[in-house]
Amino acid sequence: MISETHLRLGIPSKGRLSDLATELLTQAGLRFRRQNRGLFARVSGLSIDLIYLRTDDIPTLCAEGAIDMGITGSDLVEEAGADVDERMKFGVGRCRLAFCVPDDAPIKSAAELDGKRIATSFPHVTRKYLSKRDAAAHLVSLAGSVEAMIQLGVADAIVDLVETGSTLAANRLRILEEIGNYETVLIQNHHKRHGEIADRLVERLKGVVIARDYSLMEYNIPRAKMHLAEKVTPGFNSPTVNSLEDSDWCGIQVMVKRKDVVDTMDQLKAIGATAIFEMTLNNCRL
Ligand code: AMP
């Protein structure tokens, strides 16, 4: 089934990243069908084979060359100590890895955890971080439910991923110190086999990520107010300015971060813009 002539792309077989990876690849124009939850799927019309793997195995398998590229979390790349190239960030799955202690614990820094018990799914990252601070702890290494371990009496602190912080709040825990910020990434083996197809995949996925992140805005503005409008919407590179029949006015087309669109509309309205529209982008190449 697997072919030497095809780039092997490892994607998560289950878990929070699995559906997202499928969605991103589909949006990037890849057509494939996974049969009966199998290990492989061939992409039609492109020399790519998808290999369905555990998200936390993808960094190691990519470093070892079993797969050429993979979609996984940068936290897992660091924990695996995988020597791979990070080709792009997807801007999703953002989280922090942090030392957390009970809300009322008097402790002030991670270095004070020297000699204490720490539960975590990230023993390597935790040990490395502590050793740089001349501290060493007894690490309780677990695959999940780390947030419950202080209550269960097996740990004094935990090192866990925090996204919204609601898991911490529910367990009456607070962040003591952050180790780092992580997100979903596309990684590549150093040997860069099938480099041309890999680069094409990266270009396509970058287009999808930008299109997911940005909207196209259009509005009309008096020419005399252009300098103000350019401050509100500087654009990705620079805005497109079109002439209107009324030469005192012009039409602007510009990329704006989706999360900023509503605020931007308010600001544009306030400086005299009219006919302000937001258009959703499906895909792009910049
Ligand atoms: P939250 O309650 O939103 O802070 O999420 C924290 C819980 O979700 C913890 O149990 C984490 O292990 C898990 N989590 C948060 N973000 C991620 C991520 N990007 N990848 C994997 N697990 C995560």
Automatic annotation (TrEMBL):
Domain of life: Bacteria
Cofactor: Mg(2+)
Pathway: Amino-acid biosynthesis; L-histidine biosynthesis; L-histidine from 5-phospho-alpha-D-ribose 1-diphosphate: step 1/9
Domain ATP phosphoribosyltransferase catalytic: 54-207
InterPro entries linked to this entry: ATP-PRT_HisG_long, ATP_PRibTrfase_cat, ATP_PRibTrfase_CS, ATP_PRibTrfase_HisG, HisG_C, N-reg_PII-like_a/b, N-reg_PII/ATP_PRibTrfase_C
Gene designation: hisG
Broad class of where this protein is predominantly found: cytoplasm
Originating organism: Neorhodopirellula lusitana
HAMAP family: HisG_Long
Compartments where located: Cytoplasm
Keywords annotated in UniProt: Amino-acid biosynthesis, ATP-binding, Cytoplasm, Glycosyltransferase, Histidine biosynthesis, Magnesium, Metal-binding, Nucleotide-binding, Transferase
Name assigned to this protein: ATP phosphoribosyltransferase
Ranges annotated as spanning the membrane: none
